[in-house]
What does this fold into?
Amino acid sequence: MNIDFSTSIPIYLQIIDEFKRQIVTGTLKPGDKIPSQRDLAAEIKVNANTVQRAYREMEILGLVETLRGQGTFVCQNHGIVEETRNEMLTNLVDDFVRAVQALGLSVDATLEVVRTRFSEIEAGEEVNNE
Amino acid sequence: MSTNQALVVRDLKKKYPKADALKGVSLSLPQGEIWGLLGPNGSGKSTLLKCVVGLVTPDGGDITISGQPPSRETKAQVAFVPEVENLYRWMTIRQAIDFTATFYEDWEHERVEELLNFMRLDPTKKISSLSKGMRARLKLILALSRRAPLILLDEPFSGIDPASRDRIVEGIVRQFKSEEQTMIISTHAVGDTEQLFDAVVFLDEGTVSLQGNAEDLRRQYGRSINDLFKEVFA
It folds into this structure.
């Protein structure tokens, strides 16, 4: 796992976000084993207590579970990918909506631009990928 | 609090003929944490560490190590790595390790080979032929080869190359045993090492100007410890 973290945000939150991203994109699948806390700490050169805090939080959130003597695994719960995706999307949209509201823009005008930009950016990326 | 305090310093004072090095410093380190003692040169970091290890006698205040006042027994619990060169230049790395090992009962010979390997040091090399970064890596090996409950590193990153610094950071993350150890690292250059710290103490002319859990400070100020450091000591 490679986390290019910023030190201006709590590091344990960035570790959780990275695992969420990997779960949503399918890089990590339900039931997959994730690195031990010590290995991840060494790999990303972060204090082991910080990694422990991230893992503990992910257990509380129901993203991962630790089985005694076997390691830590992404939860088998079927809804986990969809739930995590919805949660991340909602957070992104909330930030966006607040910023747009602060500018006094309407839903309809905004949505139209969102649709247009969505296809333009997608098209632009295809060009860039060639 | 369920955690034990590995080190408690209360209202510590030290006067030198020309200046007050410590003007009443208090801190309390829970067992199992790595603390960053941050401040510019001359802020009192070394004096504080030397008081804890017993090399400097404070003028006021008190220190308890694992609940006990400093004594011969507590001294054996502390591994101190000074900033100054403390290695005999004519020795080889192997000789320096064997020499240091004779002083300590908690020395772990098995751990030395693993550390030498990880730190990429050839034990047959002479100390005099090593770069500053290599000597810094060797000093860390000497500290981590003991099973000391309290490890104090004074400026371990000062004036060394980035590759050595990264090795030392990773070495600490890999070798630090939070179940039984506690560590203080003093530094005046915070960049690229702040992710090591559970908590930080800013020492400004012998006074604590900011102290707290590193993640809480990041959240509270929305800034890195390095940025906060630059602001406080600008």
Notes: The first strand of chain B starts at residue 5 and ends at 15. Residues 13 and 81 of chain B are 22 Å apart (CA to CA).
